[in-house]
Amino acid sequence: MGSENSVEKDCKEALKQIDEKRYTQMLEKEGIEQILKYGIAFQTKRCCVRRGELS
C-alpha cells in the first residue's frame, strides 16, 4: 500500500511541475484555449494517471 501512495504522490507532483515550470505557456501564447494536463507516474508494475485542471 505504501508504494501505491508513492505513485499517487509522484503523479500529483508531475501535475504540479507542469504549472511550476509553465509548460503550457507557449500553447497559451498560440491562442490554444483548452489545454489538457496529465500527470503520469510509474513504479514497477503500477501506473497512475491523473488529469489536471483545465486551462
Task: Tell me what the structure shows.
The chain is an alpha+beta fold and 55 residues long. Helices cover 44% and strands 22% of the residues. It is built from two helices and two strands. Strands 1-2 form a two-stranded antiparallel sheet. The model has no long low-confidence stretch (mean pLDDT 89).
Brief characterization of the structure:
By secondary structure, this protein is an alpha+beta fold. It is built from two helices and two strands; from the N terminus they run H-H-E-E.
Radius of gyration: 13 Å
Low-pLDDT stretches are none
Mean pLDDT: 89
- Spatial strand arrangement across the major sheet: 1-2
Cα distance, first to last residue? 33 Å
Helical proportion, percent range: 40-55%
Strand content: 15-25%
**Looking at the structure, what is the overall shape?**
elongated
SSE inventory with pairings:
Elements: H1 2-20, H2 25-29, E1 38-43, E2 46-51
Antiparallel strand pairs: 1-2
List keywords for this structure.
55 residues; single chain; alpha+beta; elongated; 2 helices
